[in-house]
Amino acid sequence: MIKILSASRRRFGIAAGMLLAAGLAGLPGAVFAQPQTFPTRPIRFVVPFPSGSGTDTAARIFAKKISDLTGQGVVVENKPGGNGFIGVQTLLGAPADGYTVFIGSNSTLSTNAATFRKLPYDPLTDFTPITLLSRGPCLIIVPANSPYHTLKELVDDAQKRPGALNYGTGSVSYTLYSEWLNEQTHMKTTAVPYKGAGDAINGVMAANVDFAVVDASGAIELVKAGKLRGLAYTAPQRSPLLPSVPSAPEAGIPDFLAYNWVAAAVSAKTPAPIAQRLGELFAQAGASAEVKEYYQRQSTSLILSTPAELRDYQKQEIARWKHLAAIAKIELQ
Protein backbone atom coordinates (compact mmCIF):
# COMPACT_ATOMS: atom_id res chain seq x y z
CA MET A 1 0.00 0.00 0.00
CA ILE A 2 1.28 3.45 -0.86
CA LYS A 3 2.18 5.50 2.22
CA ILE A 4 -0.10 8.43 2.90
CA LEU A 5 2.66 10.77 3.99
CA SER A 6 6.42 10.56 3.78
CA ALA A 7 8.48 11.39 6.85
CA SER A 8 9.13 14.88 5.56
CA ARG A 9 5.42 15.49 5.01
CA ARG A 10 4.67 14.54 8.60
CA ARG A 11 6.71 17.54 9.66
CA PHE A 12 4.27 19.95 7.99
CA GLY A 13 2.78 21.15 11.25
CA ILE A 14 6.16 22.01 12.72
CA ALA A 15 7.92 23.59 9.78
CA ALA A 16 5.18 25.10 7.61
CA GLY A 17 5.09 28.54 9.17
CA MET A 18 8.86 28.97 9.06
CA LEU A 19 9.15 27.68 5.51
CA LEU A 20 6.42 29.97 4.23
CA ALA A 21 7.83 33.00 6.02
CA ALA A 22 11.30 32.30 4.69
CA GLY A 23 10.02 31.91 1.15
CA LEU A 24 8.10 35.16 1.30
CA ALA A 25 10.98 37.08 2.84
CA GLY A 26 13.30 36.06 0.02
CA LEU A 27 11.23 37.75 -2.68
CA PRO A 28 12.02 41.28 -3.89
CA GLY A 29 10.21 44.01 -1.99
CA ALA A 30 8.78 45.47 -5.20
CA VAL A 31 6.82 42.28 -5.81
CA PHE A 32 4.81 42.90 -2.66
CA ALA A 33 4.05 46.59 -3.17
CA GLN A 34 0.57 45.84 -4.49
CA PRO A 35 -0.24 42.49 -2.79
CA GLN A 36 0.53 43.90 0.66
CA THR A 37 -2.68 45.93 0.35
CA PHE A 38 -4.67 42.78 -0.53
CA PRO A 39 -7.51 42.38 0.23
CA THR A 40 -9.27 45.70 -0.23
CA ARG A 41 -12.74 44.16 -0.49
CA PRO A 42 -14.56 40.99 0.67
CA ILE A 43 -13.22 37.55 -0.25
CA ARG A 44 -15.35 34.57 -1.22
CA PHE A 45 -14.55 31.02 -0.09
CA VAL A 46 -16.17 28.46 -2.41
CA VAL A 47 -16.91 25.11 -0.75
CA PRO A 48 -18.06 22.24 -3.03
CA PHE A 49 -20.12 20.62 -0.24
CA PRO A 50 -23.19 21.50 1.83
CA SER A 51 -22.97 23.46 5.06
CA GLY A 52 -22.08 21.31 8.06
CA SER A 53 -19.48 19.21 6.27
CA GLY A 54 -15.92 19.05 7.59
CA THR A 55 -14.71 21.12 4.64
CA ASP A 56 -17.40 23.73 5.27
CA THR A 57 -16.50 23.95 8.97
CA ALA A 58 -12.82 24.47 8.17
CA ALA A 59 -13.72 27.16 5.63
CA ARG A 60 -15.81 29.04 8.19
CA ILE A 61 -13.15 28.90 10.89
CA PHE A 62 -10.47 30.28 8.59
CA ALA A 63 -12.90 32.78 7.04
CA LYS A 64 -13.61 34.32 10.43
CA LYS A 65 -9.96 34.58 11.38
CA ILE A 66 -8.82 35.98 8.02
CA SER A 67 -11.64 38.51 8.23
CA ASP A 68 -10.38 39.50 11.68
CA LEU A 69 -6.83 39.83 10.35
CA THR A 70 -7.68 41.91 7.28
CA GLY A 71 -10.76 43.86 8.32
CA GLN A 72 -12.50 42.58 5.19
CA GLY A 73 -15.46 40.23 5.10
CA VAL A 74 -14.89 36.62 4.05
CA VAL A 75 -18.05 34.93 2.80
CA VAL A 76 -18.39 31.14 2.61
CA GLU A 77 -20.43 30.06 -0.41
CA ASN A 78 -21.57 26.42 -0.56
CA LYS A 79 -21.80 24.93 -4.05
CA PRO A 80 -22.61 21.23 -3.47
CA GLY A 81 -23.39 18.57 -6.03
CA GLY A 82 -21.95 17.14 -9.21
CA ASN A 83 -19.05 15.40 -7.45
CA GLY A 84 -17.65 18.81 -6.59
CA PHE A 85 -17.71 19.95 -10.23
CA ILE A 86 -20.16 22.81 -9.49
CA GLY A 87 -17.83 24.29 -6.88
CA VAL A 88 -14.79 23.88 -9.14
CA GLN A 89 -16.60 25.56 -12.05
CA THR A 90 -17.62 28.42 -9.75
CA LEU A 91 -13.99 29.04 -8.89
CA LEU A 92 -12.60 28.67 -12.39
CA GLY A 93 -15.37 30.86 -13.83
CA ALA A 94 -14.62 33.73 -11.45
CA PRO A 95 -11.98 36.44 -12.03
CA ALA A 96 -8.54 35.09 -11.14
CA ASP A 97 -7.77 37.95 -8.76
CA GLY A 98 -7.52 36.11 -5.43
CA TYR A 99 -10.94 37.22 -4.24
CA THR A 100 -12.41 33.79 -4.94
CA VAL A 101 -10.68 30.97 -3.03
CA PHE A 102 -11.49 27.28 -3.32
CA ILE A 103 -11.68 25.36 -0.05
CA GLY A 104 -11.65 21.79 -1.31
CA SER A 105 -10.93 18.31 -0.09
CA ASN A 106 -9.30 15.09 -1.17
CA SER A 107 -12.27 14.30 -3.43
CA THR A 108 -12.06 17.43 -5.60
CA LEU A 109 -8.29 17.79 -5.43
CA SER A 110 -7.20 14.16 -5.79
CA THR A 111 -9.66 11.24 -5.82
CA ASN A 112 -11.80 12.60 -8.67
CA ALA A 113 -8.71 12.22 -10.86
CA ALA A 114 -8.61 8.52 -9.97
CA THR A 115 -12.30 7.71 -10.51
CA PHE A 116 -13.39 9.64 -13.63
CA ARG A 117 -12.43 8.79 -17.18
CA LYS A 118 -12.89 12.38 -18.34
CA LEU A 119 -12.59 14.95 -15.60
CA PRO A 120 -13.82 18.44 -16.67
CA TYR A 121 -10.85 20.01 -14.87
CA ASP A 122 -7.30 19.11 -13.88
CA PRO A 123 -6.68 19.25 -10.10
CA LEU A 124 -2.99 19.93 -10.73
CA THR A 125 -2.87 22.37 -13.63
CA ASP A 126 -6.11 24.32 -13.11
CA PHE A 127 -5.29 25.31 -9.53
CA THR A 128 -2.51 27.18 -7.78
CA PRO A 129 -2.09 25.48 -4.39
CA ILE A 130 -2.17 27.69 -1.30
CA THR A 131 -1.93 25.34 1.68
CA LEU A 132 -2.99 21.96 3.03
CA LEU A 133 -5.09 23.06 6.00
CA SER A 134 -5.91 19.88 7.87
CA ARG A 135 -6.03 16.09 7.75
CA GLY A 136 -7.91 13.53 9.85
CA PRO A 137 -9.12 9.91 9.97
CA CYS A 138 -12.57 8.56 9.21
CA LEU A 139 -15.12 6.60 11.23
CA ILE A 140 -17.08 3.57 10.12
CA ILE A 141 -20.53 4.22 11.58
CA VAL A 142 -23.86 2.40 11.86
CA PRO A 143 -27.24 3.49 13.27
CA ALA A 144 -27.51 3.64 17.06
CA ASN A 145 -30.01 0.76 17.01
CA SER A 146 -28.07 -1.31 14.48
CA PRO A 147 -27.77 -5.04 15.12
CA TYR A 148 -24.03 -4.66 14.44
CA HIS A 149 -21.96 -3.88 17.52
CA THR A 150 -18.60 -4.68 15.93
CA LEU A 151 -17.17 -4.43 12.45
CA LYS A 152 -16.83 -8.19 12.38
CA GLU A 153 -20.59 -8.58 12.86
CA LEU A 154 -21.24 -6.21 9.96
CA VAL A 155 -18.74 -8.00 7.73
CA ASP A 156 -20.00 -11.48 8.63
CA ASP A 157 -23.58 -10.56 7.73
CA ALA A 158 -22.55 -8.82 4.53
CA GLN A 159 -20.55 -11.85 3.44
CA LYS A 160 -23.56 -14.10 4.01
CA ARG A 161 -25.85 -11.80 2.00
CA PRO A 162 -23.90 -10.25 -0.89
CA GLY A 163 -25.51 -7.04 -2.08
CA ALA A 164 -28.12 -6.93 0.69
CA LEU A 165 -26.44 -4.23 2.80
CA ASN A 166 -25.96 -0.65 1.67
CA TYR A 167 -23.74 2.27 2.60
CA GLY A 168 -24.18 6.04 2.49
CA THR A 169 -21.64 8.06 0.55
CA GLY A 170 -21.28 11.84 0.53
CA SER A 171 -18.70 12.17 -2.26
CA VAL A 172 -16.55 10.15 -4.63
CA SER A 173 -13.89 9.88 -1.89
CA TYR A 174 -16.32 8.18 0.47
CA THR A 175 -17.42 5.86 -2.32
CA LEU A 176 -13.81 4.96 -2.91
CA TYR A 177 -13.20 4.40 0.81
CA SER A 178 -16.29 2.19 1.06
CA GLU A 179 -15.40 0.13 -1.99
CA TRP A 180 -11.88 -0.20 -0.63
CA LEU A 181 -13.42 -1.47 2.62
CA ASN A 182 -15.49 -3.94 0.59
CA GLU A 183 -12.30 -5.17 -1.07
CA GLN A 184 -10.43 -5.43 2.24
CA THR A 185 -13.20 -7.40 3.97
CA HIS A 186 -14.51 -9.37 0.98
CA MET A 187 -17.94 -7.77 1.27
CA LYS A 188 -20.30 -6.76 -1.51
CA THR A 189 -22.46 -3.79 -0.49
CA THR A 190 -24.43 -1.17 -2.43
CA ALA A 191 -23.78 2.58 -2.59
CA VAL A 192 -26.52 5.10 -1.72
CA PRO A 193 -25.28 8.55 -2.80
CA TYR A 194 -25.87 11.75 -0.82
CA LYS A 195 -24.91 15.36 -1.59
CA GLY A 196 -22.38 15.52 1.22
CA ALA A 197 -20.93 13.82 4.28
CA GLY A 198 -23.42 15.53 6.58
CA ASP A 199 -26.34 14.14 4.59
CA ALA A 200 -24.78 10.67 4.61
CA ILE A 201 -24.41 10.87 8.40
CA ASN A 202 -28.07 11.87 8.69
CA GLY A 203 -28.95 8.91 6.49
CA VAL A 204 -27.18 6.57 8.91
CA MET A 205 -28.85 8.19 11.93
CA ALA A 206 -32.24 7.69 10.31
CA ALA A 207 -31.29 4.06 9.56
CA ASN A 208 -31.89 4.64 5.85
CA VAL A 209 -28.54 2.96 5.18
CA ASP A 210 -26.70 0.20 7.03
CA PHE A 211 -23.34 1.92 7.44
CA ALA A 212 -21.06 4.67 6.15
CA VAL A 213 -17.41 5.68 6.12
CA VAL A 214 -17.37 9.36 7.11
CA ASP A 215 -15.07 12.13 8.25
CA ALA A 216 -14.54 11.48 11.96
CA SER A 217 -14.79 15.15 12.92
CA GLY A 218 -18.37 15.28 11.66
CA ALA A 219 -19.51 12.21 13.59
CA ILE A 220 -17.59 12.15 16.87
CA GLU A 221 -20.11 14.15 18.91
CA LEU A 222 -23.00 12.09 17.55
CA VAL A 223 -21.24 8.86 18.52
CA LYS A 224 -20.49 10.25 21.99
CA ALA A 225 -24.15 11.26 22.33
CA GLY A 226 -25.34 7.77 21.41
CA LYS A 227 -27.01 8.90 18.17
CA LEU A 228 -24.61 6.79 16.11
CA ARG A 229 -22.42 3.79 16.82
CA GLY A 230 -18.77 3.77 15.80
CA LEU A 231 -17.33 0.44 14.64
CA ALA A 232 -13.82 1.54 13.69
CA TYR A 233 -11.58 4.60 13.69
CA THR A 234 -9.44 4.49 10.54
CA ALA A 235 -6.07 5.27 12.13
CA PRO A 236 -3.32 3.16 13.69
CA GLN A 237 -4.41 4.13 17.23
CA ARG A 238 -7.71 4.92 18.91
CA SER A 239 -8.84 8.51 19.16
CA PRO A 240 -8.65 9.98 22.67
CA LEU A 241 -12.01 11.58 21.86
CA LEU A 242 -13.57 8.15 21.27
CA PRO A 243 -11.65 5.74 23.50
CA SER A 244 -14.31 3.02 23.17
CA VAL A 245 -14.10 2.83 19.35
CA PRO A 246 -11.46 0.37 18.06
CA SER A 247 -8.68 1.52 15.77
CA ALA A 248 -8.46 0.02 12.29
CA PRO A 249 -5.93 -2.67 13.35
CA GLU A 250 -8.03 -3.56 16.41
CA ALA A 251 -11.13 -3.85 14.23
CA GLY A 252 -9.37 -6.32 11.93
CA ILE A 253 -8.58 -3.99 9.02
CA PRO A 254 -4.97 -2.88 9.70
CA ASP A 255 -4.39 -1.54 6.18
CA PHE A 256 -7.60 0.49 6.04
CA LEU A 257 -6.11 3.84 7.06
CA ALA A 258 -8.53 6.24 5.40
CA TYR A 259 -7.98 9.97 5.83
CA ASN A 260 -9.80 13.11 4.75
CA TRP A 261 -8.03 16.39 4.15
CA VAL A 262 -8.94 19.99 3.41
CA ALA A 263 -6.89 22.45 1.36
CA ALA A 264 -7.07 25.97 -0.05
CA ALA A 265 -6.34 26.79 -3.68
CA VAL A 266 -7.02 29.48 -6.28
CA SER A 267 -7.25 29.55 -10.05
CA ALA A 268 -3.95 28.81 -11.78
CA LYS A 269 -4.32 32.19 -13.53
CA THR A 270 -4.06 34.08 -10.23
CA PRO A 271 -0.99 36.37 -10.04
CA ALA A 272 1.74 34.69 -7.99
CA PRO A 273 2.14 37.57 -5.49
CA ILE A 274 -1.57 37.46 -4.68
CA ALA A 275 -1.46 33.68 -4.16
CA GLN A 276 1.56 34.16 -1.90
CA ARG A 277 -0.28 36.82 0.09
CA LEU A 278 -3.21 34.44 0.58
CA GLY A 279 -0.78 31.80 1.82
CA GLU A 280 0.56 34.28 4.34
CA LEU A 281 -2.97 35.05 5.58
CA PHE A 282 -3.84 31.37 5.99
CA ALA A 283 -0.57 30.79 7.87
CA GLN A 284 -1.32 33.71 10.20
CA ALA A 285 -4.88 32.49 10.78
CA GLY A 286 -3.68 28.96 11.49
CA ALA A 287 -1.18 30.25 14.04
CA SER A 288 -3.96 31.87 16.08
CA ALA A 289 -5.06 30.41 19.41
CA GLU A 290 -8.68 30.15 18.22
CA VAL A 291 -7.85 27.95 15.23
CA LYS A 292 -5.37 25.80 17.17
CA GLU A 293 -7.88 25.25 19.97
CA TYR A 294 -10.58 24.24 17.50
CA TYR A 295 -8.42 21.55 15.93
CA GLN A 296 -7.30 20.30 19.33
CA ARG A 297 -10.97 19.53 20.03
CA GLN A 298 -11.29 17.53 16.81
CA SER A 299 -9.82 14.29 15.54
CA THR A 300 -8.15 16.37 12.84
CA SER A 301 -4.56 17.61 12.63
CA LEU A 302 -3.84 21.21 11.67
CA ILE A 303 -1.21 21.03 8.90
CA LEU A 304 -0.58 24.43 7.22
CA SER A 305 1.76 23.27 4.47
CA THR A 306 3.63 25.30 1.91
CA PRO A 307 2.19 25.44 -1.64
CA ALA A 308 4.93 23.13 -2.92
CA GLU A 309 4.19 20.57 -0.21
CA LEU A 310 0.49 20.64 -1.04
CA ARG A 311 1.23 20.09 -4.73
CA ASP A 312 3.51 17.14 -3.90
CA TYR A 313 0.86 15.71 -1.59
CA GLN A 314 -1.80 15.99 -4.30
CA LYS A 315 0.44 14.02 -6.67
CA GLN A 316 0.99 11.34 -4.02
CA GLU A 317 -2.73 11.11 -3.30
CA ILE A 318 -3.73 10.88 -6.97
CA ALA A 319 -1.23 8.05 -7.51
CA ARG A 320 -2.35 6.34 -4.31
CA TRP A 321 -6.04 6.41 -5.19
CA LYS A 322 -5.47 5.28 -8.77
CA HIS A 323 -3.57 2.32 -7.32
CA LEU A 324 -6.32 1.52 -4.81
CA ALA A 325 -9.10 1.99 -7.36
CA ALA A 326 -7.38 -0.59 -9.55
CA ILE A 327 -6.96 -3.01 -6.63
CA ALA A 328 -10.61 -2.62 -5.58
CA LYS A 329 -11.69 -2.94 -9.25
CA ILE A 330 -13.70 0.28 -9.07
CA GLU A 331 -15.33 1.10 -12.41
CA LEU A 332 -14.40 4.55 -13.68
CA GLN A 333 -17.29 7.00 -13.99
Describe the structure.
- The protein has two domains: 9-136 and 261-327, Bordetella uptake gene, domain 1 (D-Maltodextrin-Binding Protein, domain 2), CATH 3.40.190.150; 137-233, D-Maltodextrin-Binding Protein, domain 2 (3-Layer(aba) Sandwich).
- The chain contains eleven helices and ten strands.
- It has helices at residues 12-25, 54-70, 85-92, 106-115, 151-160, 172-185, 197-205, 220-224, 272-286, 289-296, 307-327; strands at residues 43-47, 74-78, 100-105, 127-143, 166-169, 190-193, 211-215, 228-233, 259-267, 301-302.
- Strands 1, 2, 3, 4, 5, 6, 7, 8, 9 and 10 form a ten-stranded mixed sheet that branches.
- Helix 1 crosses helix 9 (272-286).
- The longest helix has 21 residues, at 307-327.
**Fraction of residues in β-strands:** 15-25%
Main CATH class of the largest domain: Alpha Beta
H and E order: HEHEHEHEHEHEHEHEEHHEH
Question: Which structural class do you get from the secondary structure elements?
Answer: alpha/beta
The biggest sheet amounts to: 10 strands, mixed
CATH topology (fold) name of the largest domain: D-Maltodextrin-Binding Protein, domain 2
Give the low-pLDDT segments. 1-33
Number of strand segments = 10
